[in-house]
Design a protein that fits this description.
The complex is a heterodimer. By secondary structure, chain A is of the alpha+beta class. Chain A is 41% helix and 19% strand. Chain A has a three-stranded antiparallel β-sheet with strand order 1-2-3. The longest helix of chain A is centred in the C-terminal third of the chain and has 17 residues. The model of chain A has no long low-confidence stretch (mean pLDDT 91). Chain B is α/β, with parallel strands linked by helices. Chain B folds into two domains: 133 residues, Aspartate Aminotransferase, domain 1, CATH 3.90.1150; 254 residues, Type I PLP-dependent aspartate aminotransferase-like (Major domain) (Aspartate Aminotransferase, domain 2). In chain B, 42% of the residues lie in helices and 16% in strands. Chain B has a seven-stranded mixed β-sheet with strand order 2-8-7-6-5-3-4, sandwiched between helices. In chain B, strand 11 and strand 12 form a beta hairpin. Chain B starts with a helix and ends with a helix. The model of chain B has no long low-confidence stretch (mean pLDDT 96). The chains are: A alpha+beta, B alpha/beta. Chains A and B meet through helix 1, helix 2 and helix 3 of A and helix 13 and helix 15 of B.
């Protein structure tokens, strides 16, 4: 049970049960990306508000397993108030952590590290990355006017 | 009960994975050595094309390939020329739908159900969109079963095609397909039977059923992946246009016209799946030798043994307690199936989590996804015990947070 304990550390279940920044807004200044994982039914929508290249707000709403839903909450806290560039670096560090590749711990820290256990459950990587992929796409696609 | 210890000696995977608890046969069965050796024999000793070469090796390959067709024909109680080799059930069902597309028109009706695997419903959904024919769903009963009474309610003079599963891959129920076929024929409709889950568990007799088309896959009955079968009545197959064109399916080819061979060859364009077909024949020999009655009794005993214990665990929901085949679909209350699946994965128990390529029945159950355990000839009570332990562990583990 060691690996699983690690994977489902309290931090993940906490974010699952009490997610931060959950719930969508109808504000048109937010950029919305919807992503779906057809193989398991995980469904995630994220909303991004940027001002002058800085992330001012992130919202998310989805259905899925605890890994998927909690990681959306952690993602929103990890990337809040970051520049686009720093956010993308953190996202890539997160992907590296999940696939057991080296990543810079000065870039990625905090609750996101709870997900390093996912590396031992390759079938769950797509759960842990859905919200991160969605925000990554939002950051790349969103053109501030 | 079958002698599982002896049966496991036939499956090399158990030598490398002694503690394997494989409960995902509904997705794909394990493969016995006899089948692996047969596929290997073709590649090691023959490895040439069929129907073409004027040399010994090609004769032998052709003989084995066509002998495999005889084996499948006997297995289904069909005629030799009614057996088309395909890539699998999906290909078989798509073949029928594609070819029937130009036989249907707006106002015609196609009957299917929410119990279908995507490969049984989606080809006809496409046909419906392209032709304007109406897709009608048999209303499932309170357990999620297709009943003859519910079928009668959607059957009409406009019904042209009935596409239904013989055994549901999520619920494990056996459809009263014989009665449905008789009723459909009274209206002049054809019936396409998805037998992917039936073939490993039931003795199928297409002549007794009077089925028009029936499809199954090799890899779910201990055969290789990439091979499947479409059975079709000879006169129907020969009235259908091919859906793929190329080598070996034509008779004469001129600059602006060509003619087609009779079935089955008109549907087998290009080099066929030779190793797959002869491997499938060996798999059929293998499970036929064990016997369907024995398989059914064994699987039922494991199923009942598992259900009895599951019912005593509080905090789980079983969706198909009365299934006649070895499929148990369930959830741990309040725990997403993918979270639960990691507990089973950690304990080296292979079960399925998801919507099982059957989103309609998952939605009917009002679930996002479900867990599914299936039993077959190489499973024993100890597998069930380990499975039950993991179910309890899942309830405990997630209950603790």
């Amino acid at each position: 049970m060691g690996n699983l304990e690690q994977l489902y550390r309290q931090v993940i279940m906490d974010h699952y049960k009490n997610p931060a920044n959950k719930g969508l807004v109808t504000d048109p200044t937010y950029f919305t990306v919807h992503m779906h994982n057809p193989s398991c039914g995980d469904d995630m929508t994220v909303q991004l508000k940027e001002e002058n290249g800085i992330i001012k707000d992130i919202k998310h709403q989805g259905t899925g397993c605890s890994i998927c839903c909690s990681s959306a909450s952690v993602m929103s806290l990890t990337l809040m108030n970051q520049t686009k560039e720093d956010a993308l670096n953190k996202i890539h560090a997160y992907y590296h952590m999940l696939t057991n590749e080296p990543y810079d711990q000065k870039v990625l820290f905090g609750d996101a590290l709870a997900y390093h256990g996912v590396a031992q459950f390759p079938a769950r990587i797509k759960c842990a990355t859905l919200a991160w992929k969605a925000i990554e796409q939002a950051l790349i696609s969103n053109k501030e006017d | 009960m079958l002698d599982v210890k002896k049966i496991r000696q036939d499956f090399p995977i158990y030598q490398a994975n002694e503690d394997l608890v494989y409960l995902d046969t509904a997705a794909s069965s394990l493969k016995p050595k006899k089948v692996i050796d047969t596929v290997d024999y073709y590649y090691s000793n023959l490895g040439v094309n069929v129907h073409r070469g004027v040399y010994g090796l090609s004769y032998e390959a052709t003989d084995l390939y066509e002998a495999a067709r005889h084996t499948v024909a006997r297995f289904l109680n069909a005629k030799f020329e009614e057996i088309v080799f395909t890539r699998g059930t999906t290909s078989s069902l798509n073949l029928v739908a594609s070819s029937y597309q130009n036989k249907l028109k707006s106002g015609d009706e196609i009957i299917t159900s929410e119990l279908e695997h995507h490969s049984s419903v989606l080809p006809w959904m496409q046909v419906s969109k392209h032709t304007g024919a109406t897709l009608k769903y048999v209303e499932l009963d309170h357990e999620g079963r297709i009943t003859v009474d519910a079928f009668k309610k959607v059957l009409s003079d406009k019904t042209k095609v009935v596409a239904l599963t013989y055994v549901s891959n999520v619920m494990g129920y056996i459809t009263p397909i014989k009665e449905i076929i008789d009723l459909a024929h009274q209206k002049g409709a054809i019936v396409v039977v998805d037998a992917a889950q039936a073939a490993p568990h039931l003795k199928i007799d297409v002549t007794a059923l009077n089925a028009d088309f029936l499809a199954f896959s090799g890899h779910k009955i201990c055969g290789p992946t990439g091979i499947g079968v479409l059975y079709g009545k000879r006169h129907l197959l020969n009235s259908m246009e091919p859906v793929e064109f190329g080598g070996d399916m034509n008779v004469t080819v001129d600059k602006f016209d060509a003619t087609w061979k009779d079935a089955p060859y008109r549907f087998e364009a290009g080099t066929p799946i030779i190793s797959g077909a002869i491997g499938l024949a060996k798999a059929i020999d293998y499970i036929t030798e064990i016997g369907f009655e024995q398989i059914h009794d064994h699987v039922s005993a494991l199923h009942d043994y598992a259900i009895k214990q599951l019912k005593e665990i509080s905090g789980i929901e079983i969706y198909n307690q009365s299934a006649e085949t070895g499929i148990i679909t369930f959830n741990v209350t309040g725990v997403h199936p993918h979270d639960a699946a990691s507990i089973f994965d950690q304990n080296k128990i292979c079960i399925r989590a998801g919507h099982h390529c059957a989103q309609l029945i998952t939605k009917w159950l009002k679930q996002i996804a479900t867990l599914r355990a299936t039993f077959y000839i190489y499973n024993d009570k100890s597998d069930v015990d380990k499975f039950i332990d993991s179910v309890k562990e899942t309830v405990r583990f997630f209950g603790a947070f």
